[in-house]
Each structure stands twice: as structure tokens, then as C-alpha cells.
Request: fold
Amino acid sequence: DFSRLHRTTNIQQTQIAKHKSLAEESNRKCEGLLQQVTALQKEIEALKRTQKQAATNHGATEVRLNRALEEAERYKMELNKIKHNSKEAATQEQQKMELLKAENKKLEKQKTELMAGFKKQLQLIDILKRQKVMQAGALYIYPHWNFN
Reply:
């Protein structure tokens, strides 16, 4: 009976030793897994921070993009306004130019008419001078004639 107990005890001690070594191995594996879990949690936190920064940067970039688009639209509208004003000013200048040309033509015509009138007046003056000279000569030659 004693040998059987002794054998049973030895078997149980062997099994205990085996279970202790398995428990220690399991503890080492558990610690390794815990370290991996800790490392993965740190990595997850780092990724979360990176994602948050990327979202913030994306938001800021989106805001800058929207502002740039608004500014581009403002400049586009301003350019269209300037083009419209320029076309309007060119049209007005063209109209003024046409009016000035018409007025210039009218003044040239008046000048031509005045010059023709002056020439006629000079011709009449010349004719009158000749007549006067002729009258004076006729009075000198024929004092008894009355030219009045």
C-alpha cells in the first residue's frame, strides 16, 4: 500500500512539476502577449493622434481651399465688371469720337463756306475798287457826267 501511495505521490509530483512548467510557460506567453497588447494599444493611440491631426489638417486645408475659391470667384466677378466697364467706356469713347468727327466735318464745311464767302467779298471789293477807279477816271475825263 505504501509503495502504491509512494508511486502515486511520485506520479502526482511529476504531474505537478509538469503543470508548474506549463504554468510558467503560460505565464511567459501571457506576459509576452500583454507586452504585445500594450505595444498595440500604444500604436493604436499613435494612429488615433495621427488620424486626428490628419482630420484637423484636412479641415484647415478645406477651409483654405474654400477661401481661395471664394477669392477666385470674387476676382472673376471683378474682372468681368472691369471688362464690362471697359467695353462701356470704349463704346462711349467711340460715340464721342463719332460726334467729334461729325462736328469737325460740319466745321470744315462752315470753314469752306466762309472762305468761299470771303473770296466773293474780296472779288466784290476788287470790282468796287475798279468801278471807283473808273468813276474817278471818268469824272476826270468827263467832268459833266453824273454817276450818282
